[in-house]
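Repro:
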Amino acid sequence: MQEIADDIGWIMLLTTREQKLLAGRSEKQAESRRVKYWITALAVLASLSTSIALADDFKTINGKEYKNAEVSRVEPDGIVLRSKSGISKVYFTELPKDVQERFHYNPAQATAAPRPAQATAAPRPAQATAAPRQREREQIALRAEQDAIRRQTEVHSQHEETVAAADFSFFIALLVIAILVTAIIAIVAVVSAKRRREKRASLLKQARDFVATVQQNRALPTVTTDIILKPGESAFYSTPSVLYETRAVRHYQAGHTGFRIAKGVYVGGTSGRSVSTQQWAKLDAGRLTITNKRLVFVGRKEDRTIPLNKVVSVEPNLTEIVISVEGRQKAMALEVANPLIAMTIIRLCPRVTDPLNLSGDNINIDFKE
């Protein structure tokens, strides 16, 4: 304070003209310094404009590192870096010589700054405290910017976590659904296979019991029927039935006469042809009767009468017998209660003289598992 008072007293002793000259000289010097400062700053900014946005690694002379940092701003006394850890200002005095030269650091320009017109060569207490205050304001601004970036990062991280959780939940749901569908398909397949095995075992037991009865009685057991039998004809099997025959089914098969230039893209016209395939078609439902001479199907709309001596082959499955007849190109299928018993009667009757008396016939019938 005493120093300030002495300076004020000295200035008051100057003449009015000397005061004006001194003030004018000080203003010109301050203006000159400001012009030089801005020119230097603009030159530095122009020279570094192409490299500010590039990320780089920086290491201070004390060993502190800033990895993958972007130069956000270049100032006469240092650079402002933006990295994952936040925003930091690093002074040129803390950086190696090559970094100082890269950013054209000039100690004289760094210390030069606009001063008031009343400034003198001697430092003032207010000026001495201005630099720490400016640095404090810069640090507060940097902390505020870092806090804003941190909050934005936290919000982004929370959003990514929410999306990831939703995606994981959706994946788990799809996985559970896939497991359930696979389990249901496997269970259905196992149950169906078990039912087929059980049905086949039941059909085999019934057929073997039927053959045992025939061998014991030395005759085929007769059954009642609604059809009119011919002389010397007896009915040995009668059951509800469904008639199937193969039918030609046509469908259009497209083709391309041009040439392919990409997947699904052709140049030229298109052509096609009608393709015919044979498929089983249900014709009618009714009743099947097997005698020692004929196979008779009587339905509501369709009737079939097939002499047994015209039957070329008969093959059983779990629910039907498939018959090929001499003179017919198309096979037919008849749904019966026990295909094995029906097949046995159809194959046995043409081979014996009298199905009602098998004493002189050797009956040896076996069924494969």
